[in-house]
Design brief:
The chain is an alpha/beta fold and 449 residues long. Helix content is 37%, strand content 21%. This is FdrA family protein.
Length: 449
């Protein structure tokens, strides 16, 4: 006898916007339902539509502002009803006229005092919200990507005139007085201040410092393009001045992907010592820069924890494939390895209309399945608040099934909610070698060729 018939449906809801994290959670919940073969609820961006078509869904005419519900299941109607129920549960309208939220950032700041504005909206709208915050005289962290470099420069010039700091755009990580914003690890207070044109770069350095029992005062993200020639390091210089004036900061670490040499060279010395972790050919990697910071503080450099793989012999590896969630970690690994193909799945091209790969593993899981037995797959897994609550639950099984040799850079602290040691054990059981230093992971991957 044949089983129940599989049917599919694709619905388009015009102008029904939901944030990517909500949509990822709804998609995952639907996929876990009995009888559901495939489910994806997403905004109809070009990337998401292409993914749906790869999954053999016929997508009607739709645009990035439209919601698509695509389901293949035994009972399509029940699955659609469940998606509507979950989407409705994510929306909680105000119940009384007096609770009507303010319509602008500036009006919100006028209603209640604020120390900082966090902007996390689609990129085309983030500029206006950030500008509103600056005009209200407030520092702003722009979590959103998709802001043009010309608008970034304009925001930072206006912020400089107002005497406030702009962190971002695409600022994924900050720690202000012990409070983490965006993707943030659990860190002890301490003497090191960080200025970072890199979210995952800041996480790598601060997590290694934590392994060395050295805490941080503040982590000020400035956006990955800040040290480019187009932006000119405007936020970097402002952030350095703030930390230089902070009595709790004894040493500053400045972190960036390869910067503009002219912009980096124009940064003046401060009263507070500055250790540079500016990636590039011949420059120290992030682990070496962290070790330099520890020595400058007169503290010992520990052996960075790692867990070797359990698997036996494998075919000779011929190529490194980097499957990264962190752009700076991907750049660092490529520099250290000196060869291979590296993809930053956290880049704007992959995150439009979908959650960041530190939350949604889908694209990297698919890439693991496509790897060959002569590949060394090098990938990062970043822990902390805001990240996937249990990345091993999504990634360990695909690692075990992949024919490739897998090497993991596990970025986190022992205080992070995911339990770093449990994550490391799960990846090791899946056959991966695990390192807390991304640079050491890249060197190990290179040694396997």
């Amino acid at each position: 006898m044949s089983g129940p018939v599989i049917r599919q449906a694709v619905l388009v809801r015009k102008g029904a916007y939901h944030d990517s994290v909500t949509l990822m959670r709804v998609s995952r919940a639907l996929s876990d339902l009995p009888g559901v073969e495939a489910a994806m609820v997403a905004m109809a961006t070009e990337l998401n539509v292409s993914i749906l078509r790869e999954l053999s869904f016929e997508v009607p005419e739709a645009g990035p502002a439209d919601l698509v519900i695509a389901i293949r299941a035994h009972d399509v109607n029940a699955a659609v009803e469940e998606s509507d129920r979950q989407l409705a549960a994510s929306y909680r309208p105000q119940t009384a006229p007096d609770d009507q939220p303010p319509l602008t950032t500036r009006s919100a700041a006028g209603r209640a005092p604020a120390d900082l504005v966090l902007v996390s909206t689609p990129g085309e709208y983030a500029f206006f919200e950030a500008l509103d915050a600056i005009e209200a005289g407030l520092p702003v962290m722009i979590f959103s990507d998709g802001v043009t470099v010309e608008r970034e420069r304009l925001l930072k010039e206006r912020a400089e005139a107002k005497g406030v700091l702009v962190m971002g755009p695409d600022c994924g990580t900050a720690v202000i007085g012990g409070t983490g914003l965006g993707f943030a690890n659990v860190l002890a207070p301490g003497p090191v201040g960080v200025v970072a044109a890199s979210g995952t770069g800041a996480q790598q350095v601060t997590c290694l410092l934590d392994w060395a029992d050295t805490g941080v005062s503040h982590v000020l993200g400035v956006g990955g393009r800040d040290l480019s020639a187009e932006v000119g390091g405007l936020s970097t210089r402002h952030a350095l001045r703030l930390l230089d004036e902070d009595p709790a900061t004894e040493l500053i670490v400045l972190i960036s992907k390869p910067p503009s040499p002219e912009v980096a060279g124009a940064i003046r010395p401060l009263r507070t010592p500055v250790i540079r972790a500016l990636l590039g050919p011949g420059a120290p990697d992030l682990t070496e820069a962290t070790e330099n910071a520890l020595r400058a503080l007169g503290r010992p450099v520990p052996e960075w924890p790692s867990w070797p793989a359990w698997h036996g012999s494998r075919p000779a590896a011929k190529r490194i494939r980097g499957l990264y969630a962190g752009g700076t970690l991907s750049t660092e690994a490529a520099l250290v390895a000196g060869q291979g193909d590296f993809v930053d799945y956290g880049d704007d091209a992959y995150t439009r209309g979908r959650a960041h790969p530190m939350i949604d593993p889908t694209l990297r899981v698919e890439a693991l399945a496509r790897a060959s037995e002569t590949d060394v797959v090098l990938m990062d897994v970043v822990l902390g608040h805001g990240a996937d609550p249990d990345p091993a639950a999504s990634l360990a099984h695909p690692m075990a099934r992949s024919p490739a040799t897998v090497v993991v850079a596990l970025i986190g602290t022992e205080g992070d909610p995911q339990d770093l040691h449990r994550q490391a054990a799960a990846f090791r059981e899946a056959g991966a070698a695990v390192f807390t230093s991304n640079a050491q992971a890249a060197r190990h991957a290179r040694s396997l060729l």
